[in-house]
Amino acid sequence: MIKSYFKTAWRNLWKSKFFSAINIVGLSIGMAACIAIMLFVFYEKSFDSFHTKNIYRLSEVQKFPGMAASQKVALSMAPMGRSLKNDYPEIKNYTRVRWTNKYQLTSQSKKLFIQQGVLVDSTFLEIFNFPLVKGDKRTALEKPNSVLLTQQTAQKLFGDDDPIGKTITHYGSDTVSYAVTGILADVPQNSQLQFECVFSLSSMYKQWQGRMNSWGGNWLNTYVELAPGTDVANLQRKMPAFLKKYMGDGEGWKYYELFYTPLKDVHASTTDVGLDYLNYQKFDGKSTNLFALIAVVVLIIACVNFMNLTTARSAERSKEVGIRKSIGAQRNQLAAQFLGETVMLSLLALVLALIMAKLSLPFINQLSQRNLELSLFTNPELLLAITGLAVLVGLLSGLYPALFLSSFQPVKVLKGVMSSSGQSKAGLRNALVVGQFGSAVFLMIATVFVVKQLRYMQQRDPGFNREQIVTIPLDNVTSQKYDQLKQHLSGNTAIADITGAQDVLGSHMDQSGVQYKPANGAMRELATTRLIVDNNFLDLYNIKLVAGKNFSTEGYGREYIINEALAKELLKDTPKAKPSSLLGQQFGFDSLGVITGIAKDFNFNSMHHKIETMFMFNVKEWGYSRMSVKINPGKTAEALTLIKTKWAKLFPDQPFEYQFVDEHFREVYRADAQVSQVVSILTGLAIFISCLGLLGLASYSAEKRIKEIGVRKVLGASVQNIVLLLSGHFLKLVLLANIIAWPLAWYAMHNWLEDFAFRINIEWYVFAVVALLSVIIALVTISFQSIKAAIANPIKSLRTE
Q1: Higher pLDDT residue, 8 or 67?
Q2: What region holds the MacB-like periplasmic core domain (predicted)?
Q3: Measured over all CA atoms, what is the biggest interatomic distance in the chain, rounded to whole angstroms?
Q4: Alpha carbon distance 348, 367 (integer Å)
Q5: b/e burial code for range 169-179 (CB count within 10 A of at least 16 → b)
Q6: Tell me: the pLDDT tens digits for 759-777?
């Protein structure tokens, strides 16, 4: 019997090739989109899942006086971990992690620059489950000057030799030697902590003694292991008393709040946390869920196509149902047969979907900057999930058609009388078409506003020039020869100007406490963003001054330039005073100097955040972390060659790295761009699948009304009249879909745009353009079949029964 069902199903599919193709293509595209998004979601959800302990990251909310808003930071104070463990039994263990970027390691004649290393407490391997291939995890990091290498790093430094017990040396502003005490397995990609080697933090105790015991300095990450069953909310309520205990009886402790984030949530739920240097491929979990939701919508649209076309063509199988029932077939048997046909069609679509997903993976990986793989046979969970998806799609798509077809009464259908109301069937199909196109229109509107917002952030004037500027990272060694490098590059026709700064614009900068002493007022203390710059920084970046003057050579380290936001904050008690009244007032960081200039506000952070208060000062001795080189138009290749050559002469042992400022800002908005592109692609698929459904329904409608069309043509109806007759009904449904989708889209976009400090307006014309576009798309889709029917020879249609 099953064999008979299979034959029948195959014959029906082959008999209706056009409609079967529409169903299979629609389902395969929907499933391919779901499979691709499923791979991304599985990857994102797998971050840090290999750690088994109850690990939380300790973070801070800082709310200093003078700052327009509080800010969350991933950093914490060095003594916190130890003090928390001593005071609260809920905290079983802790470890601290400090990062090192571009760290040079030397073993005999081999030299290696690692991109990311970490300094950690000896408890690091007790808390985290990073596998130690060689060595004892209990003692590997106990002694100062111990280091663990990953397998890849060990191979680069020592080849096939056993590195345990051997010495590696770091040559920098200081010289430190480390003994290799263990080999770690290479860190998996789905780990927020990425490193090539692990150093014992105790190696730096003597050098960092002041910082290690300082309450108020935030410069590392603290992770704690909580006891099972710990009430985290209750623990957080104890933190104000903890801060007050260790930060003294002054007001300083009130400027901080502590909060705990589960390690498994850090990767996807901390997009509002700044200074998050150890969070690899950080991505908003809400965007991941949005991708999954839209992919499901695309798949549902494909399922709706199947239901619509199957119920529309139900009359063609009514006699089959009547005959089967008349010879004893039960309704459940018929329903099972029709469901089996649907599942078989879904499995056929799955094969095509897997091919599509496999072919699209290189593009998906490039877009997402992940390394996703469709490894079905090495990942049984994924294989089971995908197969289950196909079966579920088949069952959901075929459930209503199966129940509908199996309900026919044999006496009526064999007489040519349908047992169900044609009006109710048409009403359901209309509702499904409206739902389909309503979803597609909603996604179209959302895509337009997402793209417009991203373009607005990228193109909006940030208040400074970022074209043709290349930045070169400096470390403790290279920054000492900043003046020499600047001198070697100056005077060349390819280079317009050179400057230095503590940070690159577009990144989250440090905050510092400052003092302000007005001429006739009390000293005021507040906190604000700071930026150490060279004297010509404002000139190179074309940052305008609204009052005062730039840095002078005589006032080195004693002059301060503040932005308009800080000027407004300083004058909040005297709102009628002009910003220029601040010029010459005492202001300082560490020691008081004077305010010499007020810079026009500029977006030194991303457009997600409003412009905060900030000040700039010029203390070169503190070192610059970035050199900025302004390149003359058309001289990019020449300038880069010159910089690389001069760098190699001054720093033969240091690798040369650079990045253009506009490229850096593309990185700043990378996650937004990814969301925009993925939503656009899924929207395109939703529209395409919806059009496939319209094409099928229009084709069937024209087929069922072929005699009516013939009669109308004989009586004088024009091609335009026939096309309008066949298209008008569907166009009304598309317009209704627009009316339903508009308020939903407006509400969703209004809420989404609230997350941006600088945002576009929701213009009415976007809704009108999308409506017009949806009508045109539907009309083009329907007209293909309508025109074909309208120009057919009426004699043929009237001659045939």
Answers
A1: 67
A2: 20-239
A3: 106
A4: 28
A5: ebeeeeebebb
A6: 999 999 999 999 999 888 8
